[in-house]
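@channel anyone free to eyeball this complex?
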Amino acid sequence: MENTGEKTISTNLSASAHRMAPASAMAKEYVYNETNEEIGSIKEIMIDVPKGRIAYAVLGVGGFLGLGEHLFAIPWEALAFDADRGCFRLHASKERLKNAPGFDKNHWPDTADPSWGQANEYWGGPLAASGVPGNSGDDLGVKAGRRYDRETAGYPDKDVDEKAREARRAIDSEEGPSLRAAEQVGKSRARD
Amino acid sequence: MRNEDKVVHTDGSTPYRRVMSASSMMKDYVYNRMDEEMGSLKEIMVDVPSGKVAYAVLAVGGFLGMGERLFAIPWTSLTLDEDRKCFVMDANKERFEKAPGFDKNNWPDMADSSWATSISQYWGSGVGTPDVIERRRTPASYGSSNTDYGHK
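replying in thread with the prediction:
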């Protein structure tokens, strides 16, 4: 991703108003590259609390080294959301990932850590180390004209199971018939 | 105002961290300055193109027999208290009674500008667009507390 294009790939203009998404729902999306290879999935969204912005996304990649899952810190700017397919896109071949700086599940980097600066540089992020005082990355990623749309924006996927259970209980009650629709909504959102 | 004032951290034995995983903050309790429990963090709403955190969604219980209600509040109105593993905000329960809230099964479209306006009008800030969030991060935005947390 050259950081110049639109952050969101979308041909569905009617939904372009949706740009807010719950962090917990994004932490489940699959990540594909340009050649439609599945690279992995977003495991976690890391938030820079004082700045109020995403510091990076944790990409989980499993399998290619035969050692289970590997975690990578990916600058948010390197990811584009593909609203048409409901996934993220990262400009990266599996080969490129092999050489990318990874990190340990129990030691996720702070943006002040040198390991993060390394990862950020690898992925072409504009920030060297956002945690360093005076080196503000506040303007990064904010580009006019970028769009985001996502049919399910504002609807946390993590609640889907809970909602399905609630719906089931409700259906067994006397209000059941009127609540059947709610269950259908829940099912249609549970896409994995 | 330093950015670090957004995080309270006085325990020298643990490293100061400004980056936290979203999931680790979920269900964190939210207290006010009088240590009254306001609710808990239910969700973090992100403006996807910019990566800015726009709203914290709070689950607040015990309203006039209505059960739990959800409230989206500007992220800038929360302070993370790392010492106690909770969030702190300037508010009381009465403030929430009149606040624009929603049911957990009926989330609003948070990208809708009129909705964003209603939130910013109520909580007294111009949230909704990333640049406004940045602009709000000024001393006046959370300088109303006299609480001294003893920043290092």
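from a first look: Chain A has two domains: 8-154, 156-192.
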